[in-house]
Amino acid sequence: MSSHFKYLKKHTEALVKDVGIEAACKLTGRSKATLGRYYSDNLEHTDRYMPIDAVVALEAAASYPHVTTALAEVNGNTLSSKGNRNRNSESVNSDIVALAQRFALLMGEYNLSIEDGVITANEAKRMLTETLALQKVLVEMKLHLEEESAGA
């Protein structure tokens, strides 16, 4: 399985876990086993991906568009949202604080992970979780800065 496909599967898993497996089953009309196959990296499931209707339903309920963002990134693109939220320089300031906090959490996870010289799968997953959280903060910060520059 190529790294792109593994990347998409990992983001599919993040999407399901973001929404919660029970809620994901209800939203998509699919079983836990079926949802699990969509993000499984076992050889027998390498050609199974979540259908777009399921992605749409889950991303509407999720805190972040995991799969849509991953699809864009795989193709070298980025997403930008023009939401209706009021954004101002205070938003950018709070983004800077959130960015520093998230980066500190990521570095803390990294520091704990390398103490024994080996990064285990669980440690890598925890760092990946922090990396995704950091990415969310960066996307929000980018949107706030774009709005600031458009208003100037």
Describe the structure.
The protein is mostly helical and 152 residues long. The chain has 2 domains: 3-74, no CATH class; 89-151, Helix Hairpins. It is built from 7 helices and no strands. It has helices at 3-19, 21-28, 32-39, 52-61, 66-74, 89-114, 121-151. Helix 1 packs across helix 4 (52-61). The protein is globular, with a radius of gyration of 17 Å. The model is unreliable at 82-88 (pLDDT under 50).
- The whole-number mean of residue pLDDT values reads 84
Number of strands: 0
Spell the H/E element sequence.
HHHHHHH
- Which parts are unreliable, with pLDDT below 50 for 5 consecutive residues or more? 82-88
| Number of H/I helices | 7
* Count of domains: 2
For the biggest sheet, the summary is: none
Percent of residues in helices: over 70%
Intertermini distance: 47 Å
Looking at the structure, what is the overall shape? Answer: globular
Radius of gyration: 17 Å
Strand content: under 5%
Structural class by sheet pairing and helices: mainly alpha
